[in-house]
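Hi Y.,

Following your request, here is the sequence exactly as I used it, all 486 residues.
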Amino acid sequence: MIRRMGVWLVLLGIGIGAILMPLYRNWRAQQGIIPPGITLGGVPLNGHDLAEVEEQLNAIFATPVAVYYEKERLILNPEDIGFRVKTRVMIGQARTMGTPFYVAKAFLASLLGYSLPPQDVPLLVEWDPQKLDAWLDEVAQRHDRPARPPQVMMTTEKTFDWRPGAPGKQLDKSASIPQIIAAFKQVGDARVAHLVIREEPPPRPDIHVLQTALQKRLDHFPGIASLFLRVLETGEEVDIHGDDVAYSGMSTMKIPILLTVYKELDHLPRGELRSWMRETITSTTGAGNYTANRVLRFLGQGDPVRGAEKVTAFLRELGFRNSFIIAPYDWRGPPPRQVKTPANQNPKITTYPDPLVQTTAKEIGLILEMVVECSEGKGTLLAAYPDEFTPEECADLLDTLAQNPVRDALLPGGLPEGVRYVHKHGYAPDTHGDVAAIWGPEGPYVLVLFLSTPNQWLVWDLSNPTFEDISRLVWEFFQFREGQNP
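Below is the corresponding structure, written out as tokens. Let me know if you'd prefer a different format.
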């Protein structure tokens, strides 16, 4: 019985095989060389031979890619970057996946009217990195835009337009390459890549922007001009003939005269001396020179010439080579001696300065800077003369300078109301000067301006607007740099 059943089963199997074999051959012939249900790079492909499959696969992935630099459309062809699909490797992997057992399951599934879950051979590609880099470099060269720095444009002789910078744009190559390669692996309308563009913020307004604007304004002054600006917190400087042109020191040199008094005393000035010092700064008549001479007499123990030499010696100790005073104000006799300095020996520019008292824009500015720093408990004076100076003394000197009655002209005339400043100005027939410490939007800065029309009367209506414009321009720059509307 069992033998008879076995025979029948064999005969049944032979019969079924005889029926299925033609069906299998016909089904298999229709499948081509790629096993059924296996895709290449997500694409169902087949062909009767290797060349046909390769041609189909290459045709799909050989179309150009649309690459966008922001809104601008660029076309990148596969051959431009040596892009190609590794078709033979992929076909080989597909055929390896198509084992006899897998094929049999696929055939039986087709007989039963369903398909096996698809299996995919990942897309394998290669490209020339150097060619892609070169293409991206060319795109960047054509389309990148550097950030535009802020500018100060002179609209009229006295008016400036503060123009903020503009951000730039820069292609990020390393971030863009994966986007491009991913697009080349897509099919149809999905073959699109968007380059990664980084925004480059505009640079912070540089002090050289201010220097250019200041120079443009000074170019409208019909004479010799020297300017020095120093930002105390950052050390930034603008120096326009600040240390190579000598000027009559005039009353600006009363700052080092008073500073020398504090060096000599071991207490704050009092009594008559304090009155003289105050009058030296506050007087708008010749009385200021008279009291300055009284201070020099005090320093010289009764001899104002000796007092002047003491001030000069102190300046030399501090390293100032161009600043000196060798006689009291309004001296009528010949100079006690001749003083040669690098500035007054400049063969190219001369203001024919007073042989008795001279300075430069930079040196007198640095002297006032030392006083400001000393008042804050730091700087050269406290480091070099720890037993002669205290912050209280330097603050006292600043308080004296703050009593200068000239408030709506010269450098203070270009400042908004309520701004803290101290300054000392000086007049000669052909030269006007002002040195100021101003507490601005970024902290204190020292600003000095000297104007001269050698051997010609310097008209107030010419010099004063220049002082005010320069001061206003500096103040507006710091407002502009801090993001405020000038």
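The radius of gyration is 44 Å.

Thanks again,
Q.
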